Amino acid sequence: MASVSQDQIQKFHRDGFLVLEGFFSTEECDSMRSQIQGIIEGMEVPPHCRTEFSTREEEQLQAQVLGKAGLEHWKEEGRRQIAAQESLWGNGSSDYFLTSGDKIRFFFEKGVLDKKGNFLIPKEKSISKIGHALHAYDPVFKQITHSSKVQELGRKLGLERPVVVQSMYIFKQPGIGGEVTPHQDATFLHTEPLGRILGFWIALEDATQENACLWFIPGSHTNGITRRMVRAPSGASTCVEFVGSEPAYDDSQFIPLPIKKGGLILIHGEVVHKSELNSSESSRHAFTFHVMEAKGTTWSKENWLQPTPELPFPSLYT
Ligand SMILES: O=C(O)CCC(=O)C(=O)O
C-alpha cells in the first residue's frame, strides 16, 4: 500500500470521503471472497428469518398489509425509505435484524423469496448482505479489519481509541442488487458529538458505474445530519422509527467513485452517499466496516446496534 499523504488526509476532511486505490492486494480480496463462498455453502436460514432487503416505502407498507412482523409504520409519506446499510426488514423478522449486531446473519434481495420463505432463485444469488459481526467472528475478516495497514491509517487520521462497531459483506448481485438510497451513516450509527463515525469500504471486485459503484456529494459531511433512526419505545408496534427527514437530494450533486478491486474508500459518518441498482451482469462485492472514535464520545443508546456482553465493540488497535 502506498503511504497515505497529508494531502490525502486533508482531502478526506474537505470532501468527506477518500479513495485509496490498491490498499489491499488481490490475494487479500480473493481470500475474503473465498471465505464468504464457504460461509454461504454452510448457510442455514430458517424460513421465518429470511428477510428481504428493501429501500422503498411502498414495500415496507406492503409488509404491513401482509401482517408480517417488522417495521410496519414507516411513515414518511411520499419518500423512499433509506435502508442504506442496515434497514433490512422487508417482510421478515425485525428481531432477526435487531439482534444481528453480534452475529453473522444473512439478508436477501427483494423478490427472491416466495410467501413461505422459499428461495425462487439459487440462495447464493439471492443474498444482499451478510452482517454485522464478521469482523469479530470470522478469522479472515477479523485479520483484514485489524490489519496493520488499517491500524496505521487510523493513526494517521488521528484516531486515538477507535472501536469497530459493525461490518458487512455486500454482494450487489448482478441484475438485482438493490439500490441504496442517499443517506448518511450517522443516521443509523449516532454519536455525541457527531463526526466520530468512519466507514471503511473495500472493493473486492472492480466497482464501476455499470455495476453500481458508490456515489457521493462532496463536502456534504459538514452540515450535520437530517434524520436519525432510533429504537422505538418498548410496547410500540414497531422496533425502530425515523426522527427527522432526508432532503430530496439533487442527483446532479452526486459524483461517482469507480474503484478497482483492492481499493478502499473512507467514508465520513455524515457524508451523503448512495449506490444504484446493479442492472449489469457483473456482481460488485464489497466488505465494509465502521469504526467509532470512542475517546470523548457517547454511543447513542437509541441506536439499533448496541454492544453486547458477548461482543463489546473491539478496539481497532488490537
Ligand atoms: O455498498 C453499497 O452499495 C452501499 C454501502 C453504503 O452505503 C455504506 O456502507 O454506508
Strand order of the largest sheet: 1-12-7-14-4-3-2
- How many distinct folded domains? 1
Shape estimate: globular
For CATH, the homologous superfamily is named as q2cbj1_9rhob like domain
Strand content: 15-25%
- The radius of gyration computed from the alpha-carbon positions, rounded to a whole number of angstroms, is 18 Å
The CATH architecture can be named as Sandwich
First-residue to last-residue Cα separation: 20 Å
How many E-type strands?
15
> Would you identify the regions where 5 or more consecutive residues have pLDDT less than 50?
55-92
Any ligands, ions or cofactors bound here, and which?
Answer: 2-oxoglutaric acid
The mean pLDDT is: 86
CATH-assigned fold name = Jelly Rolls
Structural class: alpha+beta
CATH class: Mainly Beta
The ordered string of helix (H) and strand (E) elements is HEHHHEHEHHHEEEEEEEEEEEE
Individual helix count: 8
Helix coverage percent = 10-25%
Largest sheet: 7 strands, antiparallel
